[in-house]
Design goal:
Length: about 180
């Protein structure tokens, strides 16, 4: 059973909302990001806190699932790190327990979410970021976030597998968050 590609590009730029009292649709050029609460974040009960921070920022949750990833999935996700000495330990860690896989959408969601998440090394992460507030060491840094819009789409496709797993909806607050 191979991994099936997801065509997430159909979500990008499709967000529409109505201005209050206007008949003109509001088009928003949005992007998606894959964000994962890693096993340590799930075990420590940080899922709600992480989701809350992203929601309060104004991003739209498009996909969410709790599951224990396979070795194949973890290795494919981190394939760009396969030559690193920590690759095997990273894969073992990611498959060691449940993760919460999410797809978020919004203007600049990748860059903004990475600021909310904080530096990979928690000792360098600013207070107020997820890692700055909760992570203990690099190998247990609570959360993953896509590092580019292209990787956001690739990772969403990898972890969600079909476009049916991504929900296309317009939040009622959209006109209050975007021009």
């Amino acid at each position: 059973m191979g991994l099936q590609p997801l065509k997430c590009r159909s979500l990008v730029g499709r967000v529409q909302a109505q201005h209050a009292g206007s008949r003109q649709p509001l088009r928003v050029a949005a992007e998606i990001s894959y964000i994962m609460v890693k096993p340590d974040g799930v075990q420590r009960g940080l899922v709600g806190e992480i989701i809350g921070r992203l929601e309060r920022k104004g991003f739209t949750l498009r996909g969410l699932k709790l599951f224990r990833p396979s070795r194949q999935l973890a290795e494919e996700h981190y394939k760009d790190l396969s030559s690193k000495p920590f690759f095997k330990d990273l894969v073992e860690y990611i498959i060691s327990g449940p993760v919460v896989a999410m797809v978020w959408e919004g203007n600049g969601v990748v860059k903004s979410a990475r600021k909310l998440i904080g530096a990979t090394n928690p000792l360098e992460a600013e207070p107020g970021t997820i890692r700055g507030d909760f992570a203990v060491q690099t190998g247990r840094n609570v959360v993953h976030g896509s590092d580019s819009p292209e990787n956001g789409e690739r990772e969403a496709a990898l972890w969600f597998g079909s476009e049916d797993a991504i929900v296309d909806w317009t939040p009622a607050l959209a006109p209050w968050l975007r021009e």
